[in-house]
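[User] Could I get a sequence and structure tokens?

[Assistant]
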Amino acid sequence: MPENLGPSRPNAVDAAADAARRPAGPLDASLAQASGEALAALATANPERAVHDLRKAFKRLRALLRLAQASEDKAVAAEARRLRRALAGDARQLAGARDVSARRAALDDLQAKGHLSAPQRRAAGRSLTPPARQDREGADAGLSPHRAGLAARLAELSAAAPQLGAALHGKSLVAALTAEYGKARRLGRKADPEDEIGLHELRKAVVAQRYQMELLVPAWPALGAAWVAELQRLRDKLGKHHDLCVLRARLDERISSRPPAWRAPLIEAIGARQLKLAHSALRLHGRLFTETPKAFRRRIASYMSAVSDGK
């Protein structure tokens, strides 16, 4: 492992300063920005907001680290993989608070789309989601024990980021972006609207692609921003589908010999909404990922070449 990728653990203040004084290239710039977002989230007083923003920043960081894993430098690739997996583990520690928010969002979505009446929504909410005060306390209890460890992780990442970010540029960055595009394309093309596991894997790939494609926005701002916005729409559809999976899992945990009146309508509503979201998401996926990876590679290479040539 290169000397700069060793086990040093600078503190969070040093990490924030380091993130502020870089970067060199597009991947380095994005890693620096995402590290700063994570540090800001960790400093947020509201635990619910902190958990939400941390998980969001971690998703972006992991998406960027997936690109760095494609480095021809084996030590850099291994360090990117290690940090990505470590961040995934950190995110799982915060999943409990996120699951409560997901259940609440799913119920709100079902009511907004007319699948549940207001009384049914209230009754289901009382049973399946805690009061807001308990929600905040739960988020704080889930975050507080991990704050020091998370700060150390982010400091470690910020120290390694300059070398990780510099590992890909030009053709190597285009190749890594193309590989990630190809993965998201394959997952969507073989996805079954009724396969929750397959759609979950697709959602993760789309989340990564959404953050990775931000690297191309400077090459063609108008088109790049529109593309990222459409990827975000796809992510939102698949995210709502996943929230419903989380809600259904909680419902299945609370089986009773005398089920409440709202249970059957809720189960029916979840199934109907999930199917509609899945079909809508896959249609959008088909439009966004219509290009073959080879054609995609040619296109983004031409954009980046034009920028580097000053055209």
User: Anything to note?
Assistant: Residues 1-10 have pLDDT under 50 and may be disordered.
